[in-house]
Design a protein that fits this description.
This protein is an alpha/beta fold and 995 residues long. Helix content is 61%, strand content 6%. The chain contains 44 helices and 16 strands. The strands form 5 sheets. It has a 5-stranded parallel sheet with strand order 8-9-10-7-11, with helices on both faces. α1 crosses α3, α27 runs parallel beside α29 and α41 packs antiparallel against α42. The protein is globular. The two termini are 64 Å apart.
């Protein structure tokens, strides 16, 4: 069986240098403690004054620093008597430490200079990354800019020039800290531009606590809160800021902050989304040539146009440029190439040549014939054109010598067809389009053209149809371009059909395209048809390629891994990879990442139409077997000793085996969407039980990370099982639904599903749900404060786990009984139960169950006032929850840490922990848990003196508690009403917005 047990190579932290490089290379860090390396060896940097000399020289960027300057830098206005001698000693020691590279430290002009490559200093690397980020942002590439800034900020390892004495170091420390904060503000600004609002709130809350007078951070926090749906808190931040500035500095907030407050009060719609940059306008064609005319409605493709501009624009014409555009049929390769070539005309004053090489057709153009046509266009008389290919190619190259000509080779079959047609003269350029990637064309710049982005696809559709018809039906228009898979050819066909039918609305067209079975037939207008375009490429496939293309298209997943594809095709990985990579080269399949492949939506529909009927069910059954077998392996790795897997449906096709728990988690993370798609697709017939067992086996992982899609899939599976009168399948589907509802905090729904699962399990004696359903009911009863029922159900589960010889289940039941004993105040029993659960699990594997037990032990220890031991257990639990992608567990640990820090009178740290908890629990956990966190956050804000924001948090918590039943919730509501009344009276106001 294939193995996924490889481990990633470990590399040193930071950008400068390469751990594989020569050990003679020096590297330096100043963004933190001042350190030097030779290769991977950390060098001694000596005393604090010696490190101060090293830092001063590094920060002079290779320029000479005179001895008096260095003396002042190290000692200020009161240097020691032997300062110059001390400098010489420090310099000598640094040279000795540098070893073979001692010559980088030079003595000249009465001073010293350190001459190192910019990439050897972390500060220089950070500057370069920041400059690149600025360029990317100006070019409209916010995601790349954010990634570059993140890499720059990651170079800091604590306080800049940490421990380095002297006035120069102090000045530089302040300057670089200010620069770091500016970079951080820019990165946070990009986070908001990219839509990461909820995640930014936690970081911004901590930063505003650390830098309370920094108004830009306050402004970003207000915007992040507003975009997270927390308008009242955003306004409260402004109120707290206004009061703080008045009290501390006697100033009003800056105008930008005040304007933002007014826009939030107005609920300004433009605040919800960052302003998008408009695409560059198409260049005007200024002179005739062989190039076809550019289309008048050319839209978008800004990054590709820039890329080709950079390739073709060479005013001096010093080198030959060859660019090859590849992509699926209909993606707009020719349109883009003609557009880019037309823009580049001024750089090729001697002409532009064009030919359609007919590479997609049954008879591609012969290079000899093309060369004859090119030679005639260049002024060669027919009588001078030789007969053979080699002679024509040689004359072609000679004719182009010392000339600047652009050659557009459209629709090429492969590299062998275009090689004779490429000029050899510097100053010329060749631009090639092909469905095949020209990986074997030496020196070519490869451009992989993808489908349009949704907004530019909508803009393209609007350009053809007209703004009046689209503006009133924007959502329907988005449905149309999505049904077209954002493929330009399909969008043009759909738009053309709408233009030719004035009585149709956009909604009518969207409804026609919504039926996948008819979609390809609908996408034809005149001589344009998407299906005909795909047929040209499909007709050139070998039988093995055609079979793979058709069968893999049957799977509903957004992409497919190499291992899953091998299962569907029932052939070895190596053979499968060769076939799939060849399909990628034809652009009928796309590479979604290393070892992963995907279809364009319309190509998938075409593939399904062509799949052989007798192979369909068998291929899908093998895929389901593969996912269930591998998910079972992953379940066993995360739940060691759980015998439940022995009771799941058997599989005929093997899955991936895992050597390490982290490998199993990574596999589940990468395959989550595909697992759910497969389970949803195959909830019928002989596949039903395996599909539901697949869902059950990933309920704790995929169900937690993809709750909405998981719930919808499980509900569909439950309906199918009920319709098939299959009690085992229905019971396990109910158990899966109970788990996902429990994670979401929907306790009533969770209990109803667990109750149904238990009833079905008892009726048919299912060992899986027979034990886990009472366990779930016990957990739910514990959450709802029904302690007697919780004890009964958990002890029933414990008995069933022991009867099934299931040590993992026993440990889980003991863990939950520990929670119950903690709630009842029986802390000794609670500690003993949690410790027994941990002993039964063992600590060799950092499983999620172990994290749950450590969390339970931490809560029990808190009741015994062993706070340090409790925090140690909670920290260990948090690390496992985070590594395992268990959002609910991680959020609850942050919440508990916030409570502890608040009790210890550390409100700023408590607020940061509470914000991290909120960032996680806005997706899972339910209203009750979010209300608990908001209550603590309000107290933390109150402790920091931010009373307006505290009131807002309490008001939000009160609104959530209103819908939570139970005695405890009623007490909390009363407490909050009291606090809100007290603070309102204290502030002389009764409103909660903070404005």
């Amino acid at each position: 069986m294939p193995s996924a047990g490889s481990t990633a190579e470990q590399r040193p932290r930071g950008e400068p240098g390469d751990p594989a490089e020569s050990t003679a290379t020096l590297r330096f860090h100043v963004l933190g403690p001042v350190r030097a390396w030779r290769g991977s060896e950390l060098l001694s940097s000596g005393s604090p004054q010696q490190r101060a000399l090293l830092a001063a020289l590094l920060l002079h960027d290779g320029h000479t620093a005179t001895s008096p300057e260095l003396v002042e830098a190290l000692w200020g206005e009161e240097p020691p008597n032997a300062a110059i001698a001390a400098l010489r000693t420090y310099a000598s020691r640094l040279r000795k430490a540098f070893g073979p590279n001692a010559d980088v430290l030079v003595s000249e002009s009465g001073g010293y200079a350190l001459r190192v490559a910019p990439a050897s200093l972390d500060l220089s690397v950070a500057r370069d990354l920041a400059l690149r980020a600025e360029r990317e942002h100006k070019a409209g590439e916010a995601r790349q800019a954010r990634e570059l800034l993140g890499r720059a900020l990651a170079l800091w390892e604590g306080e800049t020039l940490a421990g380095v004495p002297g006035p120069f170091a102090e000045h530089q420390r302040l300057r670089l800290e200010e620069w770091r904060l500016q970079l951080l503000e820019t990165r946070l600004d990009l986070d908001l531009e990219l839509g990461h609002h909820a995640e930014a709130v936690s970081e911004l809350t901590a930063l505003t606590a650390a830098h309370p007078l920094r108004e830009r951070l306050r402004e970003l926090l207000m915007l992040a809160l507003y975009r997270s749906g927390r308008q009242a808190e955003a306004l409260a931040v402004y109120a707290d800021t206004r009061r703080l500035l008045a009290n501390e500095l006697g100033l009003d907030p800056r105008p930008e902050l005040s304007r933002l407050q007014q826009r939030i009060l107005r609920a300004d719609a433009e605040l919800d989304h960052p302003v998008e940059e408009s695409a560059p306008a198409a260049a005007t064609i200024v002179r005739p040539a062989q190039l076809p005319a550019t289309v008048s409605d050319f839209t978008g493709r800004a990054s590709f146009v820039r890329e080709l501009d950079d390739q073709l624009a060479d005013p001096e014409g010093r080198v030959l440029k060859v660019s090859a555009i590849a992509g699926i049929d209909g993606v707009g390769k020719t349109t883009l190439a003609v557009h880019a070539a037309s823009r580049a005309r001024p750089y090729f004053p001697d002409g532009q040549l064009y030919v359609d090489l007919q590479g997609a057709g049954p008879r591609a153009a012969e290079p000899e014939a093309v060369l004859g046509a090119f030679l005639r266009a260049l002024g060669t008389p027919d009588s001078a054109i030789p007969d053979t290919l080699d002679e024509r190619a040689a004359l072609y190259r000679s004719t182009l010598d010392d000339r600047r000509v652009l050659v557009l080779l459209d629709n090429a079959r492969d590299a062998s067809q275009v090689r004779p047609l490429i000029p050899s003269s510097p100053g010329c350029a060749a631009l090639i389009t092909s469905r095949a990637r020209m990986t074997n064309l030496a020196g070519a710049h490869l451009v992989d053209l993808d489908v349009m982005a949704p907004e530019e696809a909508l803009q393209f559709f609007t350009e053809i149809v007209g703004r009046e018809r689209v503006s009133t039906e924007r959502e329907a228009a988005l449905d149309v371009v999505a049904a077209c898979g954002f493929l330009p050819l399909a969008i043009r066909i759909a738009a053309s059909r709408l233009v030719s039918r004035r009585v149709w609305t956009v909604s009518v067209l969207a409804a026609k395209l919504a039926d996948e079975r008819r979609r390809l037939d609908e996408l034809q207008a005149g001589d344009l048809a998407v299906k005909a375009t795909f047929e040209l490429g499909y007709g050139q496939l070998s039988p093995q390629q055609a079979r793979a293309f058709c069968l893999l298209g049957l799977a509903d997943g957004q992409d497919i891994s190499l291992a899953a594809a091998a299962a569907m095709l029932d052939q070895p990985w190596e053979e499968t990879e060769d076939v799939l990579e060849s399909l990628v080269d034809t652009s009928l399949l796309e590479s979604a990442g290393p070892g992963r492949y995907r279809y364009h939506d319309l190509a998938r529909l075409y593939a399904r139409d062509r799949a052989e009927l007798d192979e369909r069910e068998a291929a899908l059954s093998r895929l389901l077997d593969f996912y269930l077998a591998t998910a079972t392996e992953a379940y066993a790795a995360e739940h060691p000793g759980d015998r439940s897997v022995a009771h799941l449906e058997p599989t005929r096709y093997p899955g991936v085996e895992f050597s390490y728990l982290d490998d199993a988690r990574r596999w589940l993370g990468s395959e989550a969407q595909c697992i759910l798609s497969c389970a949803r697709q195959l909830t019928h017939g002989t596949h039903l039980r395996r599909s539901i067992d697949l869902l059950w086996s990933v309920k704790d992982t995929v169900g937690s990370s993809n709750p909405r899609q998981y719930r919808e899939t499980a509900e569909a599976a439950k309906r199918a099982a009920h319709g098939a009168r299959d009690a085992q399948a229905e019971g396990r589907a109910c158990a899966a639904l109970s788990a996902v509802h429990l994670t979401a905090g929907n306790l009533e729904q969770a209990d109803a599903e667990a109750q149904r699962a238990l009833a079905l399990a008892v009726a048919i004696d299912d060992p899986v749900t027979g034990a886990w359903a009472p366990y779930d009911r016990g957990v739910i009863a514990l959450e709802q404060g029904r302690h007697t029922e919780a004890d009964r159900y958990l002890r029933e589960a414990l008995s069933r786990f022991r009867a099934d010889d299931n040590p993992f289940g026993v440990a889980n039941a003991l863990c939950r009984l520990s929670h119950l004993e903690t709630s009842l105040g029986n802390v000794r029993s609670a500690v003993a139960l949690a410790e027994e659960a941990i002993d039964r699990l063992g600590d060799e594997a950092a499983t999620l169950a172990l994290a749950e037990c450590r969390y339970a032990l931490g809560l029990a220890l808190l009741r015994t006032e062993h706070t340090d031991e409790a925090l140690e257990q909670l920290d260990q639990a948090l690390e496992i929850f985070q590594d395992g992608g268990q959002a609910l567990g991680a959020g609850m640990v942050h919440f508990r840490r916030a409570q502890i820090l608040l009790t210890a009178n550390h409100p700023a740290q408590a607020a940061a922990e509470a914000e991290q908890a909120l960032a996680v629990l806005h997706r899972v956990g339910g209203d009750r848990r979010r209300a608990d966190v908001l209550l603590v956050l309000g107290h933390a804000m109150d402790g920091m003196g931010e009373s307006a924001r505290a009131r807002t948090c309490w008001a939000e918590a009160l609104a959530l508690y209103e819908d939570v039943p139970g005695e405890e919730s009623a007490e909390l509501r009363e407490h909050l009403r009291s606090r809100l009344g007290d603070t309102a009276a204290h502030d002389g106001t009764s409103h909660l917005t903070g404005t």
